[in-house]
Design a protein that fits this description.
The complex is a heterodimer of chains A (75) and B (281). The two termini of chain A are 29 Å apart. Chain A has a domain at 22-64. Chain A is 20% helix and 13% strand. Chain A is of the alpha+beta class and 75 residues long. Chain A contains two helices and four strands, in the order αββββα. Chain B is α+β, with helices and mostly antiparallel strands and 281 residues long. Chain B has two domains: 3-139, no CATH class; 142-277, Alpha-Beta Plaits. Chain B is built from nine helices and eight strands. Chain B has helices at residues 3-14, 72-80, 82-100, 117-125, 128-138, 160-163, 168-172, 178-214, 248-262; strands at residues 22-31, 50-55, 58-66, 105-114, 141-151, 217-220, 233-244, 265-272. A four-stranded antiparallel β-sheet of chain B has the order 2-3-1-4, with helices on both faces. A four-stranded antiparallel β-sheet of chain B has the order 6-7-5-8, covered by helices on one side. In chain B, a hairpin with a 2-residue loop joins strand 2 and strand 3 (58-66). In chain B, helix 8 packs antiparallel against helix 9 (248-262). Classes of the chains: A alpha+beta (75), B alpha+beta (281). Chains A and B meet through helix 1, strand 1, strand 3 and helix 2 of A and helix 1, helix 2, helix 3, strand 4 and helix 8 of B. Chain A: It is found in: Gas vesicle.
Chain lengths: 75, 281
Amino acid sequence: MTHEAVPWDGPGGLSGPIGVPLVDLLDRVLATGVVVSGDLVIAIADVPLVRVSLHALLSSVNERVPAPWADSGPL
Amino acid sequence: MSQGEEEQGLMTERGTGTSEANAVYAFAVCHTEGDPDVERLTGVTRDEPVRCLRIGSLTAIVQTVRGSDFTDEVWQKRLTDEAELERYARAHHSVVSAVASQFPTVPLPLATLYNGDERAALSLAGESARFRAALTRIAHHAEWGVKVYVPVARSAGDDPSDERPASAATRTRPATGAGRAYLERKRNLHSRREQRQADSLRVADAVDADVSRLATESRRLRPHGGGAGDDRRVQVLNATYLVAGHRAAELDLLVAELRRRTGAHIEVSGPWVPYSFVGEV
C-alpha cells in the first residue's frame, strides 16, 4: 500500500490522529455536507467567518464561496 | 424553527452574559444499542469529559464547553490561526474516528454547538431521519481521497530554449522578420501552455472517471492552491470517493495502474470516516 492509512482508533488527544494532512482534514470537517441546526456553527466565507445561525447548510456555503485555505484554481 | 426561537437563540449567543454560560459541542451521531466507549477521549477541552447523549435509538457524542471559547469573535480568530484551527480540527477528528471505529457514525461539522443538552437533543432528534439515511448510505463503506498533481510549468519563459535567440547574430543584429519570429515564439509558448493545461485536466478527468467507476459515490472537492514554496506541482484533482469495504484493495491496484498510465503524481488518503458523504448527496 502506497498511501498512509488514517488511524481511526487509538487514544484521542488534542493532537488527534497524526499523519492526516491538515488541509485534507479541513476539506472534510468543515464541509461534511450534513444539514445541522446547531445553535452556533462555523460558516465558511471568503473571509474566514463564524456566523451565529440556527440553520446552516454547510455544503451549499462551501460550494458557493472559496474556502479559506484555497487560493487560485488548479492551474 | 419560529422567528421567536431564532431571535432567542441569537440573543443567547450574543447576549452579554453568554461568556460564562456553558455550551454543548456535538461531535457525531452514531447508531448503537449500547454507549460507545468515550472514556479515553479528550475532545476539544480538558475541562469536561466527552460523553454520550441519547437521541431515541441514536446516540450523540457531546462535550460541555465554555461558552466563552465558542463565541463569534473567538471563532473568527480561530479560523485564521492555523495552529488553533488545527488543534480543534484534530481534536474533533479524533473523537469522530474513535466513535466510528466502534459503531456506524455520522460525523458532524467542526464546531456544531447547542445551548445545552435539551437543545442538542431536540435539534438532533429532529434530524434523526436524515441521520438514519446517512447511516444506511455509508454502511460498510469508507471514504478515500484522491489527489492528482502535475509538475508545475516553469514561470515566465517556460521552456528557456523557446526564448533563446537562434544565434548570436540575431541577438546583435536583428534580421528582417525578427519581430514576426518573436510573435511566433510567443504564440507557440501560449498554445503549448494551453495544451499542457488541457492535458492536465484530461488526466484529472480520466482518473476521476476510473475511480468513480469502482466507487459508490464521488465528490470533487476544491483543488488546493499552491502550498509550500518549493512544491513544484499543481494539483489538478482533489476528489473523494465512497468506496465499499470489499473494494478498497481494487482501489489500490487501480491507482497504481493510473500512475503508470498517466505518469501523474497521484496521492491517496484514507480510509476516512465518510465525512463527505453524510449530507444530501
